[in-house]
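As the next step, I selected for study one protein, both as residues and as discrete backbone shape codes, as given directly below:
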Amino acid sequence: MFTGLIEGTCRVVEPRNVEPGMRLIVESQAMASEAHIGDSIALSGCCLTVVQLDTALLHFELGPETLQRTKLGRIQTDQLLNWERSLRAGDRLGGHFVTGHVDATAVLEERHDDREWSTFWFRLPALWTRQMVPKGSITVDGVSLTLVEVESERFSVCLIPHTLAVTTLGRLKRGDTVNIETDLLAKYVEKQLAGFRA
């Protein structure tokens, strides 16, 4: 379990194909300094397990489902990813409950910059916007954000200068792909309502 409060960014050193999956090697001294083999760490919102540590290098193994459902299947060397360690019992919850189980990817359709602030519009299938409400929570590349507007196949978020500066979101351009996780509570509500409609 995570909070969506990003601790830093890491650089992709090598996305190594290991059929049928991938070994992803990233570099971050800050992340590696407190990591252990077997730890769960969210990389751009995707919960992964540390399988090897080499000084500042961390190795993760990604299965076919992860490669197909997330943007990590198309990751390139030198790209930056957001990272967050898993939530410990008793930690302060400053964002919202994030599982690290990416639901889908979305594409940045519009970016409106107003001095140091930005409003982003992301497009994705209506299957996922059904689990969104204005002022509700959404996770974009691992970052806990508040939804502003929700339409049938897209949604908007407003980003403060701090978020733009310390996460990868500030680097996004139109057409870029991000990982999306909808709110955990919304999933259960939709499932229960589907049962009543059946």
User: Anything to note?
Assistant: The CA atoms of residues 164 and 170 lie 4 Å apart.
